Amino acid sequence: MSSAEARPVIKGRHVLFGLLTFFGVVMAANGALVYFAGESWTGLTSDHSYLEGLHYNETLAAAEAQNALGWKVDVSVGEDTAKTLTVVMRDAEGRPLDDLTVSGSLIRPTSEGSDQTIELTFVGDGRYATGLDLPLKGQWDLDLLAARQGGDRFRVKERLWID
User: Fold this and answer.
1) Per-residue pLDDT tens for 60-99?
2) CATH no. for residue 85?
3) Statement: the pTM of the whole predicted model exceeds 0.90
4) What total of structural domains would you count in the chain?
5) Could you give the strand order of the β-sheet that contains 100-107, starting from the edge strand earlier in sequence?
């Protein structure tokens, strides 16, 4: 082997520089991810979690009462450009529920600031509907409350995909 073909010698400073560069890139990437995770969403789903915890037995009783009603709910979003949200409510025997007040909210699970409150109008035969004017396409969480004058309450939570 001649001196012209000699391999470069890896010295300790080359290894040190390589390790520092590698871990520097890893730490910079982790730092950027931590920063953007902290800035993008608080992760907070309730402003009053302590109070909700104190009233958890009431929440369980309401869920039991809802299950005892046996109501059936069908939620759909029209494919038309107007985007109509339709909810069909039926009792345990399949009869339409025509005497309800239905209201709720559409919550964007991926970002804050786009949530909307909605009121559904009775259109006949257990159907309640409202037009949607959403600023973004994609996933939305529907949280509806159907209430009857006599005190019966039925909560519907469903994830929707809206194009």
Assistant:
1) 999 999 899 999 999 999 877 668 899 999 999 999 998 8
2) 2.60.40.1930
3) no
4) 2
5) 72-77, 84-90, 127-131, 116-124, 100-107, 138-148, 153-162
